Amino acid sequence: MSTAGAPARRRTFWPGRAGHLFVAAYVVLLIAFGVVPTVYAVYFAFTDAGDRFTGLSNFFDAASDFRYLSAIGHVALYLLFWLLSLVVFVVGLALLLHRLRSRTAGTALRFLYYIPGALAGAASVMVWLFMLDPSVSPVSFLLRAFGFDTFGQVVAPGNLPVLFTMIAFWTGAGGWIVVMYGALNNISPDLLEAARIDGAGAWQTARRIQIPLLRKWIVYMVILAFAGGTQLFVEPQLLSQASVGVAGRDYSLNQLSYDFAFQNNNVNTAAAISVELLVIGVVVAGIFVTRSGFFDAD
Amino acid sequence: MPTDLHTPPRLAERTRTSRPGPSRRRRGRRLPNPLSALVLVLFLVFFVLPVLWLLLAATKTDDQLVHGNPLSFGSWGALGDNWTALISFGDNAIFAWLGNSALYSFVALAITLCVAIPAGYALAMTEFRGRRTLLVATLVVMLMPNATLVVPLFLEVNAVHLIGSMWSIILPYSFYPFGVYLTYIYFSTALPRDLIDAAKLDGCTQFGVFRRIALPLATPVVALVGFFSFVANWTNYFLPYVLLPESDQFPVQVGLGTLLNAVPQFNPTVGTAAVQRPELALATLLAITPVLVVFLFSQRFLVTGMLAGATKE
What we know:
The complex is a heterodimer of chains A (298) and B (313). With 298 residues, chain A is mainly alpha-helical. Helices cover 72% and strands 0% of the residues of chain A. Chain A has a domain of 182 residues: MetI-like fold. In chain A, helix 3 packs across helix 14. Chain A is globular. Chain A starts with 7 loop residues before the first helix and ends in a 7-residue tail after the last helix. Chain B folds into 2 domains: 253 residues, MetI-like (MetI-like fold, Orthogonal Bundle), CATH 1.10.3720; 43 residues, no CATH class. Chain B is built from 15 helices and no strands. The two termini of chain B are 29 Å apart. The chains are: A mainly alpha (298), B mainly alpha (313). Chains A and B meet through helix 2, helix 4, helix 5, helix 6 and helix 9 of A and helix 1, helix 4, helix 5, helix 6 and helix 7 of B.
């Protein structure tokens, strides 16, 4: 840094030198852990174990696996529940919190809703294993009311999309509620006041003013939740450990990719599935960044 | 789910200005309507009850867990027994896991700060070739779920024979585009251009400006990036699960899975080294404590703003 008092001659010789040096370390990490793994996965996806180019055959192998379509179905169904619950409840709760007259109560509720975020990852699954086991659950009366007497019945395959949605919502919704609440606060109070004077009730105000103005935040949430949801792994993985095989080891696409790589020693097919997930991630993120105007990239 | 960590926190607290006037404040008024109060309370129960239950479960014996009132306190004695049983599992394995988590999270956090703060500053305040490309790449990678690259990362790390090294975890954690983005937004909104121009006029170089002006002003964004990076690192499961072969290298998140495998009620094939359910609850509590503590300390900024940045106003 002390050499920074460089003569102007050198600065013209290398314009933007300071900027380049500032970002150098970050660019190294970006290449090493963003670009290289991507290139590597693509390379593996289009070659075989003997490094021969194989075209799309790894993708056909993956797609013709008997678990592939059902994994896509599982993830799709989960995404449907997860995104619906997120949009309806997060927006709804943020609107209700915003109408609360008591600031203290509002702040406390937002914080308490946010707390389960601390249990993201494996910890949330541990907690929900207990919540869903009628023998120890504090809401066993509810589980029994739905006709579930054993843990095995609760985690029956048909229930899994709903259960994963509950876990994901439990850990993730609080953060989004805080974000939506903040966005609601950014709406001019004059606008709401004007609506009130014009005779709009809470419902009308929400539907005609607040929700339209929240739209880009809702889209942001849905995009991120969609991309994250396609990556479902830890919940089904731990649940399959705990459920004595009721929930399979190959429930989601990421699990399938993991299984190909580590159970079948078939990294090429695993890479093919990874590339598919990667394409979804890049495309969704790319479209959002370039088209939404959400990020003012300059 | 990593999604919540992507939510850009808002830098300036603006909530206060847009609250309804003082006349509409509290004063013993009832809620807008009982139905919305009911909904808020029901969700409160949904979010808080499991946490509360977890806290209490660690103080019980397995028998109390099954037969006692779910929301009763067990006893300090049972808590002590659970503690003793838990730390005897795998010869203090829980401490090794917690230590690993701390090591991975903090080293990665330190590297993240050293890398992301200058990078975000440069993107916001300097001109260089490739700046826009780098910014767009950062945004795209930031929006991608971090699980996307796990299996490809495994292939890469395997190729360079780093499987089992702690750097195979720490370095990928250190790559944190969201931190770069936060810093970028912070400097482009909070650092007046005039200040920079004045400093340059006085003969300060780019590095001088960064060291003497930007860094002293960067405390809030260092705290923010630190918060999100730490929480993301600590709660990551998939990457260490895939990359670390040995149990004594696991972070505590993966360790919880090992414990789960030893609970007879969830895995009937378990042999002698059985773990009782209250011990698993206690381990889960230990695993989340650091993040919970960070949450409590960050409470104010977590609930007041946390809306970013994404829109520069």
